[in-house]
Design brief:
Blueprint lengths: L2 H15 L5 H11 L5 E2 H8 L8 H13 L3 E4 L4 E4 L9 E6 L5 E4 L2 H13 L8 E6 L2 H6 L1
Parallel strand pairs: 4-6
Antiparallel strand pairs: 1-3, 2-3, 4-5
Helix pairs in contact: 1-2, 2-4, 3-4
């Protein structure tokens, strides 16, 4: 899906939710859409500064918080990075495959895995409010090189 079509979808969701998709939020969203895999906040900030020289860390963190709240991006906790969710429009559990060599990230949606995980949590009296499962390893391309 093209960056433009993703932006149009994101704007429509923001309009529906009564949320403001400001120009800074859109620029950060576009940077995320043009990135394969995850990107750290300071790397995003450096790229944003190319068009917004006055941008500060707070600028990027506020935009990332908004994009996360809207379900447009996932935070990759283990690498402290963020990635665009191409399935946005609703909050959902995600499973991420993270290549430790090239940094690529693939998002999976296994209902079976999510159900089993939720069942095990419930059996222990735990209520899940947000779920992202991360697995580290090597993508197909990097396995071929090694």
């Amino acid at each position: 899906m093209s960056t433009e079509s993703l932006v149009i979808r994101a704007k429509a969701i923001c309009d529906k939710n009564g949320a403001r998709f400001t120009s800074i939020r859109e620029k950060v969203f576009r940077l995320m859409a043009e990135t394969d895999g995850g990107m750290g906040a300071y790397d995003l900030l450096e790229r944003l500064k190319l068009t917004e020289p006055a941008a500060k860390p707070a600028t990027i963190y506020r935009a990332l918080e908004f994009l996360t709240e809207q379900g447009f991006i996932h935070k990759i906790e283990s690498t402290n990075a963020f990635m665009l969710c191409h399935h946005f429009g609703h909050h959902h559990p995600a499973q991420l495959l993270i290549c430790d060599n090239c940094g690529s990230v693939s998002e999976l949606h296994s209902a079976l895995l999510q159900q089993e995980f939720s069942k095990l949590a419930t059996e222990r009296g735990f209520k899940i409010t947000h779920q992202t499962i991360e697995a580290h390893g090597f993508c197909h391309k990097c396995q071929q090189v090694a």
